[in-house]
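Issue 218. Parser rejects a valid record. Input:
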Amino acid sequence: MSAAESRQVCERCGATYDERETATACPSCGGLFELAHKFADAHRDLLRRTFAARRAAMRGTDSSGVWRYRELVLPSATDAEIVSHPEGNTPLFARPRVSAWAGVERLLIKHEGHNPTGSFKDRGMTVAMTQARRTGAAAVACASTGNTSASLAAYAAQAGIPALVFVPAGKVAAAKIAQTLAYGARTLMVRGNFDQCLSLAREASQSLGVQLLNSVNPFRLEGQKTIVLELLDQLDWNAPDWIALPAGNLGNTSAFGKSLREARALGLIDRVPRLAAIQARGAAPFAASFREQFARHITVEPETVATAIRIGAPASWDRAVRAIRETNGVVTDVSDAEILEAKAVIDAAGVGCEPASAASIAGVASLRRAGVIDAGESVVAVLTGHLLKDSESVVRYHQETEPAPPLANRPIEIEPRLAEVERVLRTTTRA
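Output the parser choked on:
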């Protein structure tokens, strides 16, 4: 199977550029680029058979849950050029207690925290770093609330490309900073928020010749598309009614919309799921704009316990608007209390996730209570990051918050006597 052409297309003015153009914004109008592929022989059944055959790969490029779908991602990349851990291949599973809490009978969970660095960012980073290698990048950079920096640092180390990351000082979970430092990226702690970090990273990209690998980079979205491709593949291409996801900088919202658009056009699915983009209430400019039918581009000063989506001026705004409109989707917000309760339910089901991930499940529950999602509809909720990405939030919730939240699991201090163990065991059994 071969691609006839891949081009970068400006989403605003429609100008087209070569696949190897390294700018992340259109020189003519400043719009963001989107990668467009035209295929010589992309028949639905052939694609499905090709993807299925690659599932058996234990090593090499085909073992990646991103590059397995290379015809829809970056068909011109060769195995020698690809920078892969590998990534993807994340589980899709049911947890009855989470479904019961959310009020949705057919709820499945797609856990992207099972990626190599613990978040969905690895899917986009493998493609963006591959393109950076292909275009001879002297250095790469990103602004981050933590997960992007960890992923970029790991993949840059693998590719042998120097990396700079810009993170808001004092606003990133320690585990994410630890990953970034361990993988060797030069970490710049900026006295400001994420949006100021991204602005600075963009300036560095334009003035210093550093390639920017945030989600404004269209190659990032090509990798993140595979979250949807893989979950559809896992469902034997039977699309669910809804896909719910956390929404911060709106890269995933944009990528999911593009993936569904292309999957429908290629006949891989016969209907398009509705997207439910969930923001934290303290960082919810996109939800506020949705309530006004996207009449205004809103920004806010963000503040939420869900640090991965603590973003007040999302960069992928227009692309995300298109995704919501094309899928008849919805955007809503949930409080930090709702996020932490959802997280406690997810964690107690033996799954575990960071706070931002739990926004998707909290949002499903909220939309169910509002009657937007019906109890019998099929829903896939995406968890974007691993529990250990933000262990401090777990300790605060279960041990330090006063009064104790309803689902807090306080540790119990005992004397070194068997009777004490028996007492705890008796209480636990009754509970």
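Fixed in the parser; the record now loads. Residues 92-118+219-394 form a domain with the Rossmann fold fold (CATH 3.40.50.1100).
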